[in-house]
Amino acid sequence: MTPVPTDALPRSLTALPPAQVEKLGDVDIAEAEDFIRLHHSENPELGPVEARLAEVHAEIAATGTYRHTTAELTFGARVAWRNSSRCIGRLYWRSLKVRDLREVSAPAEVAKECIEHLRVATNKGKIRPVITVFAPAEPGTNAPVIHNEQIIRYAAYRGADGGVLGDGRNLALTELALKRGWEPPVIRGPFDVLPVLVSCEGHEPAILRIPADAVLEVPLSHPDLPWLGALGVKWHAVPAISNMRLRIGGIDYPSAPFNGWYMGTEIGARNLADHDRYDLLPYIARRMGLDMSSEATLWRDRALIELNRAVLHSFGEAGVTITDHHTESKRFLTHLEKEEAAGRTCPADWSWIVPPVSGGLTPVYHRYYDTEELLPNFFPAAQPTGCPVPH
Q1: Residue 239, preceding bond cis, omega within 30 degrees?
Q2: pTM over 0.85
Q3: pLDDT single digits (tens) 54-101
């Protein structure tokens, strides 16, 4: 593809200086103006942009910030997904359901609405792409912070021997939940769902157990290895990321959990296979009777393929939305072609777009991508001033 020269793009489509990005609540007027122009240019039915620009300028001058209309928030959230360079599933960006909860900042209410987000997104297994946008960072106010990396996270318990039961990625979150009074099951297991933890200055920190009816889980089985279904391995259906900061037109939304649906390799090649997560490959290889005497036998690769088969098979049998990496790679290139046809660049982080299984067999492997960061977008959550981690 032919990159568009940077000087041909409006400011809103180029990266902000890091220091500026991190100033939560500090609105860049030029960025706000460029976003409003972008919104109107892609939605001509809105009419001339000048009147809306005058409103935004006046509001920023009076208050230091401005409020997005519902249409602006919806458009901005969808374009943030469209611009997310690490996401392979952006073909569906226009279908994102936006839940406008900007009036909600109290931790208990945020936690409650995170659970409602799961119910809306789960949709009886026909997963909906959803984002829930909570209170923005504004001058003189505090925005809520969700401490879960995803709304649904499995607990991790460190044993006396140094081993870990559960998802080792969540040791710190589990410790935090225990300090806040969370009581794990009497018999601890490898797939205990952690509560939602939320904090915000001026409010009591909240910790809320996620009820079982809000967590759709898929037990894993295998079409050719019946013993795998007896292991008790499972995974949840909705990957609702909750630790990213949504930035639209100069306004930061520190808590804006969002989800699409899983690509099988996220579960089968990372969550269940990574050495510091569930590390299932050695066990599966032994049960398969593979020769593990040398890496050259490719026992890891063979076990990995069967684990990924189990994930796709199980979600399919349960009627839960999932996609395989070959199909999604082709869909991503369709998305890229559509963006180019619309005169837009499509940034992509090669290391995230190329699947962790059989990467060289997918079409996304064999090309370069634009890497410039566009706006609106999602960024790693910054810890806003005055929002301490609960302890």
Answers
A1: no
A2: yes
A3: 999 999 999 999 999 999 999 999 999 999 999 999 999 999 999 999
Cis peptide before 376 (omega within 30 of 0): yes
Catalytic site residue 266? yes
pLDDT of residue 19: 36
Check residue 6 and give its pLDDT. 28
- Residue at token pair 């409006």: 10
Residue 179: partners with Cβ closer than 8 Å, 6 or more residues away: 391
Choosing from 52, 78, 82, 90, the catalytic residue is 90
Residue in this structure with the two tokens 């259906």, named with its chain if needed: 237
Task: Please provide the distance, in angstroms rounded to a whole number, between the alpha carbons at the two ends of the chain.
Answer: 50
Instruction: Examine the residue annotation and report whether 93 is marked as an active-site residue of this protein.
Output: no
φ, ψ (nearest 5 deg) of residue 228:
-65, -35
Residues 6+ apart with CB under 8 A from 94: 78
The order of strands in the sheet holding 251-253 is: 251-253, 244-248, 377-380
Residue 226 DSSP class = G
Q: Is 90 a catalytic residue?
A: yes
**Which residue is catalytic, options 109, 138, 266, 339?**
266
Contact in structure between 59 and 29 (CB atoms under 8 Å): no
- In sequence order, the 6+-apart residues with CB closer than 8 A to the CB of 21 are 247, 379
Backbone angles phi, psi at 183, to 5 degrees: -105, 110
Structure confidence at residue 381 (pLDDT): 86
Rounded CA separation 315/219 (Å): 8
Of 81, 93, 261, 299, the catalytic one is 261
Angle (nearest 5°) at CA 384 between 378 and 386: 160
CB atoms inside a 10 Å sphere around CB 314: 25
